[in-house]
């Protein structure tokens, strides 16, 4: 909870202002002026939040976001995606972000006061990792960065490893220099996006390029959307196979309907009777290749069985 006192203080101020802005029966004189002043303050809070962080950054946006996401389907767009598509980047992230091409909204918005979304290289972090980083704050982040640096160096990514273990201030300097020299690349060296001199310099000061962050968000969207669609297909095929082995005709029919509904929604998947037949054959082959409930690599299976027999005296 390091640095969270500011967030709690801001929310206390917000709710206190909301309460003071409510109409009071029989209010006169100074009471009316106080109510009007509270309403002006509330308008100022929302107005400045929208200016610097857009609709996404206004107070209590996260309530609507949580309510919407609670009832969305596995392959449906989340609230942020729907709002960005409906409003456009200018209103969604705010004019400051839009005109400066600096990721200011992600730094000053109310939405991230208590829970900061992971972006960039950390966008695929596990839910547990994100919860721990939010709850434990800087101490956890330092330890996590050191472990991450160790992994990168072990993989031969020495420059990225050194960058990861540095304090944030120095890390931004290294990152800005890297952007200026080679642009924004993945660890494999694949280009994510170009970064001009202005944005590289501002990265040194801690402000990431807004268009680059948008690209990271777009990449995460495509990756997660693809995983969600394939997971639905995989689960339906798994249910079909399980129902078939149990002789459950209703279960097989339900799984088939789910598959063909998915195929109608995403024709690109090319789901057909052949898809089901191939899946059943593949699962039968896996079952036949199982060694006491364990699936072994085909090429290594003979060696592994022999090694296990020698090690355990079978």
SSE order and pairing:
Elements: H1 4-21, H2 30-53, H3 61-70, H4 79-87, H5 89-93, H6 95-100, H7 105-108, H8 127-136, H9 138-154, H10 158-165, H11 168-182, E1 184-185, E2 191-193, H12 197-204, H13 210-246, H14 249-265, H15 273-289, H16 301-312
Antiparallel strand pairs: 1-2
Strand content: under 5%
Percent of residues in helices comes to 55-70%
Summarize the biggest pleated sheet. 2 strands, antiparallel
Q: Which outline best applies?
A: extended
Mean pLDDT, nearest integer? 89
Q: What keywords describe this structure?
A:
314 residues; two-stranded antiparallel ribbon
Overall description:
- The protein is mainly alpha-helical and 314 residues long.
- Helix content is 69%, strand content 2%.
- It has helices at 4-21, 30-53, 61-70, 79-87, 89-93, 95-100, 105-108, 127-136, 138-154, 158-165, 168-182, 197-204, 210-246, 249-265, 273-289, 301-312, and strands at residues 184-185, 191-193.
- The chain has a two-stranded antiparallel sheet with strand order 1-2.
- A hairpin with a 5-residue loop joins strand 1 and strand 2.
- Helix 9 runs antiparallel to helix 10 (158-165), helix 11 packs antiparallel against helix 12 and helix 13 (210-246) runs antiparallel to helix 14.
- The mean pLDDT is 89.
């Amino acid at each position: 909870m390091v640095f969270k006192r500011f967030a709690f203080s801001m929310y206390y101020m917000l709710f206190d202002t909301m309460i003071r802005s409510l109409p009071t029966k029989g209010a006169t004189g100074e009471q009316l002026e106080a109510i009007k002043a509270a309403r002006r303050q509330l308008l100022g809070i929302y107005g400045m939040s929208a200016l610097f962080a857009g609709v996404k950054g206004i107070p209590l946006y996260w309530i609507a976001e949580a309510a919407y996401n609670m009832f969305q389907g596995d392959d449906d767009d989340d609230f942020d995606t729907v709002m960005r598509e409906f409003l456009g980047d200018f209103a969604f992230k705010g004019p400051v972000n839009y005109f400066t091409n600096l990721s200011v909204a992600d730094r000053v918005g109310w939405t991230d006061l208590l829970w900061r979304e992971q972006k960039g290289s950390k966008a695929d972090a596990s839910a547990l990792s994100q919860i721990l980083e939010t709850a434990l704050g800087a101490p956890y982040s330092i330890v996590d960065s050191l472990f991450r640096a160790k992994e990168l160096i072990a993989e031969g990514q020495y420059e990225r490893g050194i960058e990861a273990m540095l304090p944030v201030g120095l890390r931004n300097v290294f990152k800005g220099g890297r952007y200026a020299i080679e642009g924004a690349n993945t660890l494999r060296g694949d280009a994510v996006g170009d970064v001009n001199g202005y944005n590289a310099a501002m990265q040194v000061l801690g402000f990431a390029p807004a268009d680059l962050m948008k690209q990271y968000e777009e990449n995460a969207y495509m990756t997660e959307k693809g995983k969600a669609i394939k997971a639905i297909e995989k689960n339906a095929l798994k249910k079909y196979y399980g129902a078939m082995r149990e002789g459950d005709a209703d279960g097989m029919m339900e799984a088939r309907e789910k598959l063909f509904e998915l195929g109608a929604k995403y024709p690109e998947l090319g789901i057909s009777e052949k898809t089901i037949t191939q899946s059943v054959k593949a699962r039968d082959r896996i079952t036949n290749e199982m060694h006491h409930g364990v699936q072994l690599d085909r090429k290594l299976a003979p060696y592994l069985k022999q090694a296990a027999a020698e090690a355990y005296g079978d």
